[in-house]
Each structure stands twice: as C-alpha cells, then as structure tokens.
Design brief:
CATH architecture of the largest domain: Orthogonal Bundle
Distance between the termini: 44 Å
Structural class: mainly alpha
CATH class of the largest domain: Mainly Alpha
Radius of gyration: 23 Å
Helix content: 55-70%
Shape: elongated
Strand content: under 5%
CATH topology of the largest domain: Endonuclease III, domain 1
Length: 235
C-alpha cells in the first residue's frame, strides 16, 4: 500500500502567487523607450518668446492651467515685455492683468519682486543656474528646474504634481514620499541627455492620460511596465 504525503495548502497556492518582478532598470528602460518612440518632441505648453516671459508664465502656472496662463500673458507681455518695465509697474497694474488666474494677489507681488531683483542683481537678465533662480521671489526649486531645463537644456528634472503622481504610479520611484525624493531618484536613473525631455514626458502623460481622478489605463501604452496597473489588475 502506497502512502501519499498530504501537501500543505501553501505548497499549492504559493506557485500561483509568484509573479515575475520587474527590475527597476528594466522599467526605466522600457518606459523611456516608449516615450522616445511615441512622444519624441515633448515640450512646454506655455507660450513665451524669451527667458523672462517663460519665468513669468511658470510663476503664473502654479495651481493654474497652462491654457489659462496662455490667455493671460499676451496682454501682460504687451504692457510689460521685459523685467525693467515690470519692475517699475505698480502692484495694482500687474494684478489687474492677471486677476483671472489663481492667487493673483500673491502672484502680482512675486512678479514685481522677481522683476526688481532681475534688474537690480542680475543686470536685467534671467539667471541661468538653479541656485541663482531660487533667489528670485516666487521661484522655488520646481520653477527653477523648469527654467533651467527649458531655456538652457540643463540636465535637471522639475517635479510638479503630474510628474510626482506618474513617476510613483509607474513604479519609477519606489519609496519616494516627497517631490524632492522623486526628483533625486529620477535624476539618478535617467541619463543627462534625456532629463529635459523626461520632465515633459511625465508631465504630459499625467495631464492627458494618467490623470489624478481617472487614469486612462485602457489607452495607455505603458501598461506592461506600470506598477500601479499591475497592482490594480493583477496583470
């Protein structure tokens, strides 16, 4: 008589639970390759003609859509085309031209202070380094990275709410809990030549596909490498 050893329940279930774990390097490689193939020319959607206009537009874009900013800036730039003209403008004049954006009072204060410092400290020209840019009123690390990346093609990555969300969902920045954590992890893993575009890739993907409330997973080409999609579907 042959006795059969009774198998533990875990011996049956465990193999079913085992899934191939995607390595972080592999995830980056495939995600970046997909973006290069399907979004090769990603760039800012803010409309500007010089570094000063871009820094103004980026300051206005805080908690405000690029579409709204692009409606505001033509009249603003017509009145104040450079730092010198904005520096001598009154708070009320600037406020009147930007009042349809979010937090216009604070932004008018920041714009005037930024223009005054550019004139008094930097000879009327927008500085090129992140350290100098963050001296300007209304310019934090994210805004400074945007300016440095877009204008001077510096190898930095600006992390806004879209980049923060998408990077974490895709599984590119495991364990990251703050925008700075995400920035440092992305910077470490993404090559210098790709960093300026990588910011726009992640931002635009978050703006139009991987949205905050309703991610468009059905039409997303990044599903095979997305950690969030795998966690939601088991695929």
């Amino acid at each position: 008589m042959v006795l059969f050893r009774r198998k533990n329940k875990k011996q049956y279930i465990q193999p079913l639970k085992q899934k191939r774990k995607v390595r972080i390097a592999e995830r980056y490689e495939n995600v970046l390759r997909w973006f290069e193939m399907y979004m090769p020319a990603a760039d800012t959607e803010l409309e500007y003609s010089d570094p000063f206009q871009l820094i103004v537009a980026v300051i206005l874009s805080a908690q405000c859509t690029d579409r709204r900013v692009n409606l505001i800036t033509p009249a603003l730039f017509e009145h104040f085309p450079d730092a010198k003209s904005m520096a001598i403008a009154s708070h009320e004049e600037i406020f009147g031209l930007i009042k349809s954006c979010s937090y216009p009072n604070n932004k008018a204060k920041h714009l005037k202070g930024m223009a005054e410092m550019i004139v008094s400290r930097f000879g009327g020209k927008v500085p090129s380094t992140r350290e100098e840019l963050t001296m300007l009123p209304g310019v934090g690390r994210k805004t400074a990275n945007v300016i440095a990346s877009v204008v001077w093609n510096s190898p930095v990555i600006a992390v806004d709410t879209h980049v923060f969300r998408v990077a974490r969902r895709l599984g590119l920045t495991p364990g990251a809990k703050s925008p700075l954590d995400v920035e440092l992890k992305l910077t470490r893993e993404i090559s210098e030549e790709l960093r300026p575009r990588a910011h726009h890739w992640l931002l635009l993907h978050g703006r139009y596909t991987c949205t905050a409330r309703k991610p468009g997973c059905r039409e997303c080409g990044l599903k095979p490498w997305c950690a969030w999609y795998a966690s939601q579907t088991g695929k």
